[in-house]
Amino acid sequence: MSGDLLFLAHRIPYPPDRGDKIRAFHLLKHLARTHRVHLVAFADDPRDLGHRGALAEWTASCTIVPRTKPKWRAGVEALASGKPISLTAFDDPAMHRAVAAVMARPALDDIVVFSGQMAQYLPRDSGCRIVMDFCDMDSAKFASYAASGSAPMRWLMAREARRLQAFESDVAARVDASLFVSAAEAALFAEATGHTATVVENGIDTERFDPAAAFAQVDLGSAAIVFTGQMDYPPNVDAVTWFADAVWPAVHARHPGSRFVIVGRAPTEAVRRLADRPGITVTGEVDDVRGWLAAAAVAVAPLRVARGVQNKVLEAMAMARPVLVSAVAAEGIDHGGTLRVADDPAALAAAIDTLLGDADAAAALGRAARERVRDRYGWDARLAVLDAIVDPSRRAAA
């Protein structure tokens, strides 16, 4: 073992059933091979408080802090303090105490921070190596939000983007390494802040996400168009509502037996209302997304706002599905032509029509996508670069 390591996460990395938790879980699991990991994380779902025991295999200690601050209070605190809402929403005295308790350990050598919101808990003079996994450039995401919406919302999002970018730059200046999920995100960060970054791409468990694995089968018929994701996450909500408005009517008219199936927990009211439209199904939370992906004639990710590597896309590829994505959803994925990419409604509808009309070609595309993911995106290969960052002896040997 290389020593003790504090792993800070904005959300408990278990179960690994959504994008951020998947990445955080595999980071933690990888680091536990060489370190005694002390996990300190928030839980924003009461059910997650029961997962401490499941993490015992990879942690020397595990402290989970419930996150209960309402959004209105975070907003008031942000306006009063001049801080980004992204920070005040995660500012909690109990978390400060939990971090201080681990920092008091004499053997602590490394700190890994997952997600920018948690960087506010970094001590100024820790004497530890610090790795900051930004994942995506959050400030750029808010800048894109500022391009649309009502005037007050545009002002708020622009404010968030400016103040969060200043914070991100300050954090990058203090840490030993800044990580991003794609070369595009790292380049964007370098251009905006002047700080270099290391790319640690997302991976995929290709043994679990395998059409030959054991999982509950789902019958969706022969023409199901499937979207998966956390359905209270604004970019996902925007993607499915836009697709339902701009693309789905043409697809359903051309293929009356087709279904657009929106799979994911916590659908907003706007998403739930989509189920009132012809051919659209909203599932809510499901036990295992694999059966729904396996039943898809086409998996779609028509995101209009996206940062980094989309786990939903890698999962669909690993399940050997033909996958149709927007350009921003494909960005950062080295897919080698195994994704179909389109942005405007007519092109998306035409691509779906083609895939539904030629089952053999669609199946061949899905098989090629799985081969690409298996060769390119295994977690061990993706995280190998992390060893040199947190282990100076390996870095010197390299």
What does this molecule look like?
The protein is of the alpha/beta class. The chain has 2 domains: 4-203 and 379-397, Glycogen Phosphorylase B (Rossmann fold, 3-Layer(aba) Sandwich); 224-376, Rossmann fold (3-Layer(aba) Sandwich). It is 44% helix and 16% strand. The protein has helices spanning 19-31, 71-81, 85-88, 93-103, 138-145, 151-174, 183-193, 234-246, 248-254, 269-273, 289-294, 311-318, 327-330, 345-357, 359-376, 379-390, 392-397; strands at residues 4-9, 36-43, 61-66, 108-114, 129-135, 177-180, 198-199, 224-228, 259-263, 280-284, 298-301, 323-325, 340-341. The strands form 2 sheets. It has a 7-stranded parallel beta sheet, with helices on both faces. A 6-stranded parallel beta sheet has the order 10-9-8-11-12-13, sandwiched between helices. Helix 12 links the parallel strand 11 and strand 12. The longest helix is centred in the middle third of the chain and has 24 residues, at 151-174. The protein is globular and about 65 Å long. The chain starts with a strand and ends with a helix. The relative contact order is 0.11. It comes from Sphingomonas japonica. Keywords: Transferase. InterPro entries: Sugar_tfrase_PEP-CTERM_Stp1 (IPR017521).
CATH architecture of the largest domain: 3-Layer(aba) Sandwich
**Sequence stretches where pLDDT stays below 50 over 5 or more residues:** 394-398
CATH class of the largest domain: Alpha Beta
Class by helix and strand content? Answer: alpha/beta
- How would you name the CATH homologous superfamily of the largest domain? Glycogen Phosphorylase B
Main beta sheet, described?
7 strands, parallel
Shape: globular
The strand count comes to: 13
Strand content: 15-25%
Helix-strand pattern: EHEEHHHEEHHEHEEHHEHEHEHEHEHHHH
The CATH topology of the largest domain is given as Rossmann fold
Spatial order of the strands forming the largest sheet:
3-2-1-4-5-6-7
Domains, number: 2
Alpha plus pi helix count = 17
Q: C-alpha Rg, in Å? A: 21 Å
Q: Helix proportion of residues, in percent? A: 40-55%
